[in-house]
Amino acid sequence: MQFWISTVAGVAFTIAGAGETFMAVLYPRAINGPITATVNRVFHRLLKLGWIAGCRFIVAAGPALIVTQVLCWATLLLAGVSLIVWPQLGTGITARGCR
Q1: What is the pLDDT of residue 30?
Q2: What are 65-98's pLDDT values in tens digits?
Q3: Where do transmembrane segments lie in this chain (predicted)?
Q4: CB 61 within 8 A of CB 52
Q5: Considering Cα of 10, then 16, then 17, then 22, what sign does the dihedral take?
Q6: What is the pTM of this model?
Q7: Nearest of 36, 31, 45, 42 to residue 16 by alpha carbon
Q8: pLDDT in tens, 4-55
Q9: Exposure of 72 by Cβ count < 10 A (0-12 exposed, 13-18 middle, 19+ buried)?
Q10: DSSP structure class, residue 50
Q11: Helix, strand, coil share of the chain (percent; to 5)
Q12: What SS3 class is residue 79?
């Protein structure tokens, strides 16, 4: 039963990651996905609260936001594919204790 759950969750993560990437790359100003919108909101709130203060950090905020978004998409895709492949690995390889 848990294998079906992990496969369904993996498919959902993969579709979410691919959808976010697709919307951001092909339609960058028309549509924001929910994950990209959340990352943007959190990042801008951190800037407004003053957690990231100073001229040097403000200048790097744009590139840091882009890197953060790409890392979120990559994490979604990696987690999704991992959850899909995990049930297929089986139990053929097991660890033995040291003798």
Answers
A1: 63
A2: 888 888 988 999 999 999 898 888 777 767 676 6
A3: 57-86
A4: yes
A5: positive
A6: 0.72
A7: 36
A8: 888 899 999 999 888 888 888 887 676 677 888 888 888 888 777 766 666 6
A9: middle
A10: T
A11: 75, 0, 25
A12: helix
**Local structure of residue 54 (DSSP, 8 states):** S
Q: What six digits make up the tokens of 63?
A: 């590139």
Give the other-Cβ count within 10 Å of 36's Cβ. Answer: 20
Domain boundaries, the chain: 2-86
In this structure, the chain runs to a length of 99
What gap in Å lies between CA 59 and CA 79, rounded to an integer?
32
Per-residue tokens: 26: 């092909």
Q: At what angle do helices 61-85 and 34-49 cross, to 10 degrees?
A: 140
